[in-house]
Amino acid sequence: MAAPPAPSAILGAEQAAAAFPPLLVAAERVAATVAQGIHGRRRAGPGDAFWQFRRYQQGDSAHSVDWRQTAKADRPFVREHEWESAQTINLWCAGGAGMDWRSADTLPTKRERSALLLLALASLLLRGGERVGLLLPGDRPTSGRLALHRLAETLHRAGAWDIPTSGLPRHSSVVLIGDFLAPVEDIATTLRTLAGRGARGHVVQVLDPAEESLPYSGRIEFTAPTGGSSGAWLVNRAEDIREAYVDRLLAHREALRALTRSLGWTFALHHTDTPPHAALLSLHQTLSGALLKGTG
Amino acid sequence: MLGPLGMFGFGAPWVLAAIIALPAVWYLLRVVPPAPRRLAFPPLRLLMGLSAREDSAARTPLWLLLLRLLAVLLAILGLAQPVLNPQPGVAGGDRALLLVVDDDWAAAPTWEDRQEVLNSLLDRAALQDQPVMLLTTAPPADGGPVTLGRLGTPEDAREQIRSLEPKPWAPDHAAAATLLNDLGAFDAVMISGGVRHEGTDALLDALRRHGPVTLVEPGPGGSPLVLGPPERTPDGLTLTVHRPAAPGVALPPRAATVQALDDKGRPVGAGPVTFAADAATAEAHILLPADLRSTLARIEARPAGSLGAPGAAAVLLLDDSWQRRPVAVVPGERERAGVPLLSDTYYMHRALEPFAEVSETTMAEALEQRVSVIMVAGGGRLSDTSTDQLVPWVEQGGVLVRFAGPQMAAGPQMAEGSRADPLLPVALRGGGRTLGGVLSWSQPASLAPFPDDSPFAGLTVPPEVTVTSQVLAEPSVDLPQRTWAHLSDGTPLVTGVRRGQGWVVLVHTTANAEWSNLALSGLFPDMLRRLTALGQGAGDGSEDAAGTAPQPPLELLDGFGRLGDPPPTARALTATTTISPDNPPGYYGRADQRTALNLSGAEDPPLGLGALPAGVERIGFGPMAQAVDLRPWFLGAALTLLLIDLLISYGLRGLLGRRPTAAAAAVALAAILAAPPVEAQQGDDAFALEAALNTRLAFVRTGLGDVDQMAQEGLGALTAVLGQRSSAELAPPVPLDINRDELAFFPLLYWPAADGQEMPDAAARSRVNEFLNRGGMILFDGRGPENAQALQVLLQTLDIPPLAPLPKDHVATRSFYLLPGLPGRVDGGPVWISQSAASGDAVSPVIIGSSDWAGAWARDNAGRPRLPVIPGGERGRELAYRSGVNMVMYALTGNYKADQVHLPAILERLTQ
Lengths: 296, 912
What we know:
In chain A, 41% of the residues lie in helices and 19% in strands. By secondary structure, chain A is α/β, with parallel strands linked by helices. In chain A, the strands form 3 sheets. Chain A has a 5-stranded parallel sheet, sandwiched between helices. Helices cover 31% and strands 21% of the residues of chain B.
């Protein structure tokens, strides 16, 4: 899924096009199972849906009077619509060799699962009328059904990219999906920058179950997924270091959780061996609640 | 070098020195840890700095280490050429190995074991590149002396041994011993037959002078059996069976069986033989009815449980003297009977015929024919010349049965004789005795039960047998012993006595119904049968024959005891012949007059090996005593252990995770490979099920598209017509592959003939013939006169019954519609059916014509006719349908409507 080099760009695009519909369909399917519409604004405002009738007040324009309702009573009524304003949400999905990894053939890679979550979330948001974009410099959030296709395309074309710390519109929401295995200090720097621009964020950590439990034993030389050059670690008995590793991982996650809490963001954990629906639902709930809160 | 177990040795013991390298292997395995498995892992950063608690865990586990050491040890042991049960006498080195093989009759029963012993000895010799020499002790078949084989490689010797066969004569150990004088030192192994012959000691001594000697002997369980002479008993045979025995050597008990076979090789009787401990001879009894006894050709002795060749000494061939039991019936010399129902000879003839060769001759001819039993009727006194000839004949084994008669009863004649008749078992009193006569108060006497020691013992006496007249014996001391049957008042009725080898028997009444009704009863044939069984056959007169002319070899035994064509080296049998390479045992003479020369039949058991000269090591050979080269087993085990080690190593490194996938792939592959026959089977079953569930027409596929389509549509249309007009509601027609499909389901096959059609193969032809023979019917259609050639070609391949033109009033034209014939689309000439069906009631299995019926029937999907009907137009088509209906009805109902054909005649008769 990583962005291919120029000579094989066309080939990569074709490969992506082959993988693109199922991914999109899967995203749609997952989104359809989540109830829609709970993120109405619950207040009168510009919009299409009827909200309430209210007494005419001084200053209301004459064409806002609902004459039919007025004719039923002896005083004029004004028809109010529910306020439907679109929120801008920027999505980001981690890339890199570490994300293109899975512990077993039966599992999706973390990258696939992350992209699935991202697109499914985007599908949901778009159906709700939100403006959705990638957290990518130069990418403008759009809305509408076609936006999903544009997103998927852009997502593939962009490949892996780092979180931009500039160019983010103020007071927007960001959703960051990735494994977040980098040192917490590096992550903190990035997130603080984002938060400093007033963004509300949601962090979803996607991990392979093997990364959670280190289910290996025997004499193993662990290498980085990018290749041998970036370092290797020889373990004589992998089962012996399992507990220590799990402790470290938990500590790392706690640090992440503390970081997001300190920024007022949310943190969620997802494993690739569990179905995406649960993660999507909880993300959706959190996000819609956050949206309400953010505008309330 | 022998291993610690004694049963275990090494061919290359110096390799075992490599065992001292094992600790080094141990050290290396301990020091070098197994190679790690490389695994990409994204959270590598979190792992950095974590290390296992104890370093030693990285080393190979102890049990795996031991496994590997065991594999190495096995490999070293395997390379050291381990041998189980190393053969003694093969000390190795440059000394040659001399194999002395007894290939005489004694070796035959255990020949395969011997071959195995020899092969294992040669295996050992081959392991050490020892030169081998072979010495066979039995003289060769060409009559030459025993010779020494050439010194050669073990493989050369193996070739020679493979071509060895046991000879049916004795070995010449003395000659073999003299051959050894010029030889140098060697290791000797003698494979002995287990029998001591003249010169055995000399041979062993000669061997001993040249080096160590090992004697391999069969042991008491495998020693050869030798059949002794057979003896007749009233109810069968008693046989003596010998085994080799030596003074002072204990023999265990042993079980064997004897089997009697008739001239066609069928077993007719068998009996067990049990040698008591230390007994060299045992007796066997075979129960045999007399008529089976006369067909005996061969008796074999085998160790119990053995099915192999018995060996020449355990086979006793019986020749004509045994088999034929000719009985001569001689009328009384003074009486020439002519009236059948009154003459003595008539009753004897009738009673003897079922089981004996009966000839009615004069006394002189009977003696010339070398019969075994002579029955003299009429009771007259024998002439002196006859008596002089008969006495030696009886003493050689002949049985003379005489019947009393009026002449014998006449006392004065008895008294006249200057000497007592030697051919009467008892002295007779003058005058007869008449019971129940007109002037007598006494009643006719009945028979008393037979005494137990009589040849008639066991026969039941019918109460209606009565004797009215008899001759009486003079009372004497030995009269009761000679009495074989007596009347209820105790007077003897049959008396007999042994004379030499033979018997003289007197029946004290006549052989006709004059004096007694014995000759009319069922007891009479039984008694005569018992008397005949006493005979030994044509009187051991082989000496006469042998004395007159040499007899050419006819069928000879080989060492195993199998009869075969005589080898060219066999010579004719003369009077003084003993068994030798020139005269092997077997049958000599002409096919109709055979003389058996037997290796068996000795009165005394053969001599066992007994004590051997000092310095001869003796061992037995058994099934487990062969040398087994363990090298492949050790190396195989080492390889297996290494493979297991490989798997375990992979398992330790966690690389076995993909194995289930591979196994699943293998299983899937196997399933794919196994699947096609299953499907084919299901296909056949589906066809059979489909064809059997509904009655339907079928046509034979020609392989030509338009012909097949026409047949399909024609039969389809005919099926529709049948459904409309009759109660024959058939399922849609099906095409048949004549070479593959089962025909039995279809009442009527339509077989169009066409140029270039597929011809039935041989199997299909036989199935078609079977189909026709079992009631199937085939309509052959030449499809128009222009196709007559194709129809002829097709019919030539099949077995069609003789044909006749279809008669005008045949059932087929009356079975549903009344038709003038069986018209089709074109006028294709006469229609032919089976000849028998044309005349009688039989149903013809074939209807053959060229009228292109299917062409007339065929309609396309819209119901339009395919082809025009040449004579008659649509009316002609209707007639074609009607003939089709008639033919199907004929196939379904047979000649059921045949009566209708004759209805006019029946009606005419009724009205009269």
